[in-house]
Amino acid sequence: MRERDHRERDHGDGDGDKKELRRGRPRSEAVERAILEAAVALLEDGVPLGGLSIERIARTAGVGKATIYRRWPGKEALFLDLLREFEPQDPELPGTSALDDLRALLESVRRRGVAQRSSVILHNVVVEMKSHPRLWEEYHRTVVAPRRAATLAVIRRGIEAGELRADLDPELINDLLVGSMLMRTIHRPTAPLPDDLAEQIIGVALQGVGPHPQPSPGRETPGP
Q1: Which pairs from 31-34 meet CB under 8 Å and 24+ separation?
Q2: Quick check: 87 and 147 in contact, CB under 8 A?
Q3: Higher model confidence: residue 10 or residue 71?
Q4: What is the pTM of this model?
Q5: Which of 146, 158, 202 is nearest to 178 (CA)?
Q6: Fewest C-beta in 10 Å: which of 23, 63, 74, 204?
């Protein structure tokens, strides 16, 4: 049934599709969607990422291999688009302060972690993709690096505004904040991800982990 449904959506395959491309019309989004859904269906059925082939995806989607190659130069490019399908949109930053923007950015990382834990297919794709160096490198270049650059821009804005210390390396601040969230979301898959985790991380980073200074003996603690 799934393959038949995909074939019914693939109205642009074959000679008609070639004519459409020659006329300069936009590529059929329905066809691309059917191809991506076919790849997802195979992954859901337990086919490992390394076991997916263009031929198998085309057969499941009910299209010809040429239809896929007109849209993606190869399997890795298709997989990269497939992974992007699972990625939530970047958060809309409040812009009220650098700290508020950092909270929004960290919260988006937390939400991705929650989504990954609840999606077996997403977890498997991320894990298996690490065994495909070229694909992993491209994912970092097009997805991870821009997000890191956006966070660093917010941190530098916070330094300029006096919200963060100017004597610290922005890269180090980024690693302390984002690294803490990534440790919880990726490297500790059973660690709790409470709603206020972003606030907790920023609070600890700002206050430090050293003990609070104790009042000297014989001296009264000042009142409020």
Answers
A1: 31/63, 31/67, 31/71, 32/71, 33/9, 34/6, 34/9, 34/10, 34/61, 34/62, 34/63
A2: no
A3: 71
A4: 0.71
A5: 202
A6: 23
Report the candidate in 7, 90, 82, 103 with the shortest Cα–Cα distance to residue 37. 82
Single-letter amino acid code for the residue at 101: D
Tens digits of per-residue pLDDT, 184-205? 988 888 899 999 999 999 999 9
**Token code pair at residue 223:** 């009142």
Q: How confident is the model over 136-164, as a mean pLDDT?
A: 93
The 3-state DSSP class for residue 198 equals helix
- Angular region, 162: left φ>0, alpha ψ -120 to 50, beta rest: left
| Amino acid at position 134, single letter | R
Residue 28, token pair as written in the block: 């059929």
* 92 alpha-carbon distance from chain centroid: 15
How far is residue 71's CA from residue 19's CA, in Å, rounded to a whole number? 15
Contacts of 91 (CB under 8 A, 6+ apart): 104, 105, 107, 108
> Which two structure tokens, joined as six digits, stand for 11?
């109205």
One DSSP character per residue, 139-180 reads HIIIIIHHHHHHHHHHHHHHHHTTSS-TTS-HHHHHHHHHHH
